[in-house]
Amino acid sequence: MAPSAITPTEEYKFTHEDYKSIEPALGRLDNHGVLLGKQLKGEALKSRVEAVDPDTCDVGDEDAFFVADLGEVYRQHLRWKKNLGRVKPHYAVKCNPDPQVLRLLSELGLGFDCASKNEIETVLKMGVDPSRVIYAQPCKTKGYLRYATNAGVKQMTFDNADELYKTKQIAPDAELYLRILTDDSASLCRLSQKFGASMDTTGELLELAKKLELNVVGVAFHVGSGASDPKAFIKAVQDARFVFDQAAALGFNMHTLDVGGGFTGDKTFEPMAAVLSASLDEYFPPHVRIIGEPGRYFVSTAFTLACHVIARRTVADATLGTTSYMLYMNDGVYGNFSSIIFDHQHPVPRVLKNGNDILYDARRSGYDTPSMVEYSIWGPTCDGIDVISSSCTFPEILDVNDWLYFEDMGAYTKCSATRFNGFTDNHDVVYVCSEPGASALLGL
């Protein structure tokens, strides 16, 4: 049964009994579940590509496709609860609005960080209570703001005076979070150049909100997408405490701190979480509700992308006596590899199918040192910037109709794909699930 809605003022509690209930699963985070997920992904990839005969298949059958392990999303949730039990996650829908991911996170009781009318509508249509949605867009379209208000979404952010006047006109009963400026210089994607009130303006904004009789209930910040410096959280939490005290002096009853996103799912998460947790405990008493807006943390590693080699060019260097190849795939930077440009990612190509051989997760002996062949890998459009890898090597001689795969493709990929040059932005997702808990929640 789906968890009940959580009101905006309710603390996200994680007790010792909660921990005991998930401890067996936590023990599998780095072994059984991960290994099973790898196996299930491999079987799904193999089944799909072996079913495609490029000489007879229908148009689109050989298109790039994803395999997603929902069990990985579930494991990331358990990992979050273990390390950031005080922080209630509100998934950043923009990162990957995959319907099954949204379903699972909804069943797990998460809230949702939405930035547009479409994102709000998507989660509300799933039956999510409006109290679990934060309209985390400091500069909102008036029509979108009216929609959100009429739909019952009250939590929203602001960082400037004009937004307060807009809110007074359209959403006077909103529960507002003042988004403050942070140091995001160590993040992959900086946001401070666009959003966040500087600390020398927060007092004026709170005074204006008081004059307009608006309800400011909390502070929000964001240390940047893909943050790498834990110290950024310390300064942001300290600044948030200062604004809380400013608001209290003006008579506001602040009850929520939104620590934003920036969390990655790699090995930096635990030390980052430890620093954030310590700062929260130092500056904010237990009655203050803490929420966050993770995106890539939940989905990055869950999705693997498979691409078809549609063309090959041989590059012979007579002077050096070498032969390399240019491979052209049916997906590129205008499609699911948009993360290369927009998200500063570096997808790693691996061989999935070479001739009749399936090579997913192939392990070679340490004594096996075959000569390597150099490749560059390109997307399908007519644009010269459509390059996936300028140089990589494989022991295999790859050709047209072979397949490559790319892991960790769940964040800022499919959501920002375009139809440039007439290529599709609609790619299938094959779902597997390596965790029984996730399967039970989704009825799989």
TrEMBL record:
Gene3D superfamilies on file = Alanine racemase, Lyase, Ornithine Decarboxylase, Chain A, domain 1
- Tell me the cofactors it needs: pyridoxal 5'-phosphate
One short Pfam family name for this protein?
Orn_Arg_deC_N
Q: Which reaction does it catalyse?
A: L-ornithine + H(+) = putrescine + CO2
Q: In which pathway does it act?
A: Amine and polyamine biosynthesis; putrescine biosynthesis via L-ornithine pathway; putrescine from L-ornithine: step 1/1
**Keyword set includes Lyase:** yes
The highest taxon in the source lineage is Eukaryota
**Active site positions:** 382
Enumerate the GO terms in the molecular function aspect.
ornithine decarboxylase activity
Which residues are annotated as modified residue N6-(pyridoxal phosphate)lysine in the UniProt record? 94
One GO biological-process annotation of the entry reads:
putrescine biosynthetic process from arginine, via ornithine
Q: Name one GO cellular component term.
A: cytoplasm
**Where found?**
Cytoplasm
Q: Which family does it belong to?
A: Belongs to the Orn/Lys/Arg decarboxylase class-II family.
This chain's protein is named Ornithine decarboxylase
